[in-house]
Design a protein that fits this description.
The complex is a heterodimer of chains A (115) and B (111).
Chain A lengths: L4 E3 L2 E4 L5 E6 L6 E7 L6 E7 L2 E5 L7 E4 L6 E5 L8 E8 L9 E2 L3 E5 L1
Parallel strand pairs in A: 2-11
Antiparallel strand pairs in A: 1-3, 3-8, 4-5, 4-9, 5-6, 7-8, 9-10, 9-11
Chain B lengths: L8 E5 L4 E6 L7 E8 L6 E6 L4 E2 L4 E4 L5 E6 L8 E9 L12 E6 L1
Parallel strand pairs in B: 1-9
Antiparallel strand pairs in B: 2-7, 3-4, 3-8, 5-6, 6-7, 8-9
Chain lengths: 115, 111
């Protein structure tokens, strides 16, 4: 099964450290999305890419957060100077553009714990 | 995108139909109704979407009222593996951006 994969699945870090997460979308999908989910809440949008272009960023994406998709394939999400409030599940999703625009396929997520 | 209202939680007996309601009274003419679900510790999973007509696929059926102000997701024969949080989302068709999730309905399927 070549679904959306995310690495790592779990990350524990100390406050103030930098962390980077990776997302590998479904290979033919040109759109890639990042969401954040805290306990008991639905996922909240962070940013999305069409190919390598970052087309939209949420106000949740503070200047400590940066996302890249350098070759229009995999994407990375970096959080600098982590804070305890960054503890959450970080979800990646991809979709196939116009033909499959209704469906976003989600990965299993990366659970971040900031101590 | 229009706001949706869903019950916080519902129970269903295994093997029975699960009917999950969603109110979207401010929906506009070009907005579709989408359903996703999230099983514990997994990413959300697309279930079905519709505009006006009722829709059915291998997972579920979607019934949209004639005035489009509410809809019902039907899982015809619920199993324990259908225990999940179900999200009803309204958005413009062919919208190229993000999904806006609410808190959804926690469905518990009981033996």
């Amino acid at each position: 099964d070549t679904g959306v994969s995310q690495d790592p699945r779990h990350k524990i870090t100390k406050r103030g450290q930098n962390v980077t997460f990776r997302c590998d979308p479904i290979s033919e999908h040109n759109r890639l999305y990042w969401y954040r989910q805290t306990l008991g809440q639905g996922p909240e949008f962070l940013t999305y890419f069409q190919n390598e272009a970052q087309l939209e960023k949420s106000r949740l994406l503070s200047d400590r957060f940066s996302a890249e998709r350098p070759k229009g394939s995999f994407s990375t999400l970096e959080i600098q100077r982590t804070e305890q409030g960054d503890s959450a599940m970080y979800l990646c999703a991809s979709s196939a553009g116009l033909a499959g625009i209704y469906e976003q396929y989600f990965g299993p997520g990366t659970r971040l714990t900031v101590t | 995108d229009a706001k949706t209202t869903q019950p916080t939680s519902m129970d269903c007996a295994e093997g029975r139909a699960a009917n999950l309601p969603c109110n979207h009274s401010t929906i506009s003419g070009n907005e579709y109704v989408y359903w996703y679900r999230q099983i514990h510790s997994q990413g959300p999973q697309y279930i079905i979407h519709g505009l006006k007509n009722n829709e059915t696929n291998e997972m579920a059926s979607l019934i949209i009222t004639e005035d489009r102000k509410s809809s019902t997701l039907i899982l015809p024969h619920a199993t324990l593996r259908d225990t999940a949080v179900y999200y009803c989302i309204v958005r413009v068709g062919r919208s190229q951006g993000n999904l806006i999730f609410g808190k959804g309905t926690k469905l518990s399927v009981k033996p």
